Amino acid sequence: MMYRYDEFDRAVVETRAAQFRDQVRRRLDGELSEDEFKPLRLQNGLYLQLHAYMLRIAIPYGVLSSDQLRGLAGIARDFDRGFGHFTTRQNIQFNWIKLVQAPDIIDRLATFGMHAIQTSGNCIRNVTCDPLAGAAHDEIEDPRIWAEIIRQWSTLHPEFAFLPRKFKIAVSAGVEDRAATGFHDIGLRLVTGRGGEIGFRILVGGGQGRTPRVARMLATFIPKRHILSYLEAVMRVYNAAGRRDNIYKARIKILVDDMGIERFADAVNAEWHHVRDTATDLPQAEHDRIAAYFTPPHLVDASPVPSVLATARRHDAAFARWMQQNGLPHYHPGYANAVVSLKSAGRPPGDASAAEMEAIAALADEHGQGEIRVTYQQSIIIPHIRRDALPAFYRAASAAGLGGGEHRLVGDIIACPGLDYCNLANARSLPLADRIFRRFGDPERRAAIGRLQLNISGCINACGHHHAADIGILGVDKKGVEHYQITVGGRAGEAAAIGRIIGPSFAEDEVPAVIETIIDTYLASRDRDESFAAFIARTGPDAVKEAVYGNSATGPQARRGGQHDLA
Amino acid sequence: MTGVMFAANRLDDGTVIWLTGSLCWSETASRAAIFLDADIDLARREVMAASHRNEIVAAYEVAVDGRADRSMRERIRAAGGPTIIPPQDGQARRQRPSKGEG
């Protein structure tokens, strides 16, 4: 079903755990200064944040077994404050870690095949992937195999351990891009080429942060057998030419900007020509060995329209709403993939308690196949659930407080930890997410609004993906006071786009009403069945700008008028 | 009158701490001293010494005008945790029973 550590993986992780234990000991004994220790702890995912140490643990391409999730619950309970935070890169973070206990945590992780290697630092980070990989109705082939191959290739790769800056790769194989490949340093899309051969479309130079860029097309088709040598060529060009003199100019997107995509592609092709005969291209036998871990799930012949499902939808409006949003299609018509939403009133987006993690693991064991996926939208997906089991699944999820049907609705807010936890943030994200969630507290209203992605970042680093949201909110520091800038029209996936700022920023108290004004403007003006994204694409931001600020978005007078309208 | 407070994290567990008037480190923000004039150098020497003793990390000076910095960042650190307490964070709820979801 999923990749399992072999002897080599185990040896790497155990060696690294022993090294880290010794590094921590030397730091506490004073043999290492903080300047010497910091890069070592970061290479093991350990940050020092606002209140305590934070440990970021890699969840390779967002795939967990139920036993691994139980293991993470144990870490939450034994080493943290009983909960963890699923991140926008399909990882998990623990916010209340003690340095003295960090080696024990790393040891514990190794016992269930997990680690924190390359979750920080200027290296190739955890490869992310379509959370429906291997279970999607629209994919060309299972992208997890390629994500795992890239994971193995990039893990502790000596040439790429000290890149100019961090480097993020996403892989997607669906007709729909569910991995936001357009916002990654490299986005890989599996596509069918001429003659039916499957290969990769390569996007490069995407990213958010202070210089948001949608990735550009680097190659329309690279045969699968050459993907590692091609990636190596891209990395070599970046490693050699990427800027190291200015942290804000060091990402590959800036290099692509400076060179232009044509010159950059020429440089990659020249490097590829140079290395393709000597660089590692995966032998077919090795591909097949890795692919063998990803055996198809055991599916029985199940009805696509079981009567129990139709009955439950008719008699239970909450279930019908949940099913509409959170029941996702599976390649087998008798099965579905179910979203377990980690969004609800009072819950920081992406947070789950130890008990909830264990409940999710039990759901996966009982109704799925013991497998769990973490989404970059900070929720969970349980794949491979028989459609006739969905009512029972929903009842069990609801009993655990996880029955929210928020997937892709306004309540499905992506939010970074913000100033409540993060040393870099200018403003808080989490309380604002909660206020907005509560503002749209009626689930029927959320459903009536329809698909709408609202994302919040607490600073320009954009960990909350505000650039890629229908409505994006960016926290800024305005003379020592938290303010929030609003964008509309951003989008991940197909036709990825960067949201546009609608005008001057707002104080926190004003933001929920401003969001409501924007959404009410959409509801009043949308064509039949027109999504918020389509509405903004049709009208531009002007309609919502005018509703929010009045006729002019530039002057304080107009802005005061706008606020008055919102009161 | 410009005074200075000193904050840091304890090295071994990351806990936020402040320098008190008796040049000790406290987890209680209200015990933080605002150092003035010549005492500022004295306090800086203790910060250096505590760093060298491997007791503290990430020390910094908070400039204040005769009273504590009231920026949101410093208020959150002084409160000992986030302004929205996850429902499952029993420890934080026990510490701050009056503060709920923000």
Largest sheet of chain B: 4 strands, antiparallel
- % residues in beta strands of chain A: 15-25%
CATH superfamily of the largest domain in chain A: Sulfite Reductase Hemoprotein, domain 1
Largest protein interface, residues of each chain: A-B, 39 and 31 residues
Strand order of the largest sheet of chain B: 3-2-1-4
Taking Cα atoms only, what radius of gyration of chain B do you get, to the nearest Å?
15 Å
Would you list the SSEs of chain B in sequence order as H and E? EEEHEHH
Question: pLDDT under 50 segments of chain B (min length 5)?
Answer: 98-102
What would you call the shape of chain A?
Answer: globular
Total separate domains of chain B: 1
Topology:
The complex is a heterodimer of chains A (567) and B (102).
Chain A: H1 7-29, H2 34-42, E1 46-48, E2 53-57, E3 63-65, H3 66-79, E4 83-86, E5 92-97, H4 102-111, E6 128-129, H5 143-154, E7 169-172, E8 186-192, E9 198-204, E10 216-223, H6 227-241, H7 252-259, H8 261-275, H9 284-291, H10 307-315, H11 317-326, E11 327-329, E12 335-340, E13 351-353, H12 354-367, E14 371-374, E15 380-386, H13 390-399, E16 414-415, H14 430-439, H15 443-449, E17 454-457, E18 471-478, E19 481-488, E20 500-501, E21 506-507, H16 511-525, H17 532-539, H18 542-549, H19 556-566
Parallel strand pairs in A: 6-7, 7-8, 16-17, 17-18
Antiparallel strand pairs in A: 1-2, 2-5, 3-14, 4-5, 4-13, 8-9, 9-10, 11-12, 12-15, 14-15, 18-19, 19-20, 19-21
Chain B: E1 3-10, E2 16-19, E3 25-26, H1 38-52, E4 56-64, H2 72-79, H3 90-95
Antiparallel strand pairs in B: 1-2, 1-4, 2-3
